[in-house]
């Protein structure tokens, strides 16, 4: 089975595994340097649009991404050629990072404006609205505080505490992104577009399914999670969606000239 791994897929697997081992067991500081931080963060560096792809949160995160590359990558590399497979992986990964950063910045700025609005007019009802919108960042005790604040809206201590809680939510939103999922979703959409009727056998549930239906399911599930935008979900679904879109555009462009495949 491993003898069938194509060169680019093999090299990507080796690099990602080696980086994971080094970052977790020898140089933990790599996470602070190479993860993709929000653009407004002091820790953000432009090269992180590239390096974040080779960092992973834990073993299972690494395994899921590398397993997808291992399953779908070799056939794509044989069909597209090593240069195009590598281009697809890198463009989808970097592009997903760029688009996700823009998306995160818009979300951060929107919440920041709401926090400033509250600070200008510390209204308990408005604070309660923000708590409900971002309830995934709060513990259950915050609702007891909301009740006390509502009954004492002029209390300076309560106003200060409310401002502190909202600033903590802003701080929690300033977390980095890692992983090759954006690149992998580019691989998935490419496989679905180029081999739509290929039968794949799923592990869970154990059943066969055509590639086009599997990709459609992942696409719809990703869109659903982007629209849901749950604050308790630490998965960068918009990056996944970005990888799908970029991959689809890239493959569509390549398919215009069939002679470019080799």
TrEMBL record:
<protein>
    <submittedName>
        <fullName>Protease</fullName>
    </submittedName>
</protein>
<comment type="similarity">
    <text>Belongs to the peptidase S54 family.</text>
</comment>
<keyword id="KW-0812">Transmembrane</keyword>
<dbReference type="GO" id="GO:0016020">
    <property type="term" value="C:membrane"/>
</dbReference>
<feature type="domain" description="Peptidase S54 rhomboid">
    <location>
        <begin position="47"/>
        <end position="103"/>
    </location>
</feature>
<dbReference type="GO" id="GO:0004252">
    <property type="term" value="F:serine-type endopeptidase activity"/>
</dbReference>
<dbReference type="GO" id="GO:0006508">
    <property type="term" value="P:proteolysis"/>
</dbReference>
<dbReference type="InterPro" id="IPR022764">
    <property type="entry name" value="Peptidase_S54_rhomboid_dom"/>
</dbReference>
<feature type="domain" description="Peptidase S54 rhomboid">
    <location>
        <begin position="172"/>
        <end position="251"/>
    </location>
</feature>
<keyword id="KW-1133">Transmembrane helix</keyword>
<dbReference type="InterPro" id="IPR050925">
    <property type="entry name" value="Rhomboid_protease_S54"/>
</dbReference>
<feature type="transmembrane region" description="Helical">
    <location>
        <begin position="211"/>
        <end position="228"/>
    </location>
</feature>
<dbReference type="Pfam" id="PF01694">
    <property type="entry name" value="Rhomboid"/>
</dbReference>
<feature type="transmembrane region" description="Helical">
    <location>
        <begin position="12"/>
        <end position="30"/>
    </location>
</feature>
<feature type="transmembrane region" description="Helical">
    <location>
        <begin position="183"/>
        <end position="204"/>
    </location>
</feature>
<dbReference type="InterPro" id="IPR035952">
    <property type="entry name" value="Rhomboid-like_sf"/>
</dbReference>
<feature type="transmembrane region" description="Helical">
    <location>
        <begin position="50"/>
        <end position="73"/>
    </location>
</feature>
<keyword id="KW-0472">Membrane</keyword>
<feature type="transmembrane region" description="Helical">
    <location>
        <begin position="85"/>
        <end position="106"/>
    </location>
</feature>
<keyword id="KW-0378">Hydrolase</keyword>
<keyword id="KW-0645">Protease</keyword>
<feature type="transmembrane region" description="Helical">
    <location>
        <begin position="234"/>
        <end position="254"/>
    </location>
</feature>
């Amino acid at each position: 089975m491993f003898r069938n791994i194509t060169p680019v897929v093999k090299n990507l697997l080796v690099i990602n595994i080696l980086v994971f081992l080094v970052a977790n067991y020898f140089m933990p500081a790599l996470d602070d340097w190479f993860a993709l931080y929000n653009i407004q963060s002091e820790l953000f560096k432009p090269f992180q649009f590239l390096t974040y792809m080779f960092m992973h949160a834990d073993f299972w995160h690494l395994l899921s991404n590398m397993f997808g590359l291992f399953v779908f990558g070799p056939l794509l590399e044989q069909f597209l050629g090593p240069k195009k497979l590598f281009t697809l992986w890198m463009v989808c990964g970097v592009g997903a990072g760029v688009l996700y950063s823009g998306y995160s910045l818009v979300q951060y700025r929107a919440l920041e404006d709401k926090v400033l609005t509250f600070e200008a007019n510390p209204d308990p009802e408005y604070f309660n609205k923000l708590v409900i919108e971002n309830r995934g960042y709060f513990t259950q005790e915050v609702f007891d505080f909301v009740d006390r604040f509502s009954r004492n809206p002029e209390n300076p201590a309560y106003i200060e505490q409310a401002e502190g809680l909202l600033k903590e939510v802003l701080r929690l939103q300033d977390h980095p992104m890692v992983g090759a999922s954006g690149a992998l979703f580019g691989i998935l959409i490419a496989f679905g577009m180029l081999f739509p009727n290929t039968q794949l056998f799923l592990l869970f549930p154990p059943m066969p399914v055509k590639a086009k239906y599997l990709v459609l399911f992942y696409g719809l599930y990703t869109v659903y999670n982007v629209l849901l935008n749950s604050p308790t979900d630490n998965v960068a679904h918009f990056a996944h969606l970005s990888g799908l879109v970029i991959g689809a555009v890239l493959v569509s462009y390549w398919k215009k000239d069939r002679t470019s495949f080799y």
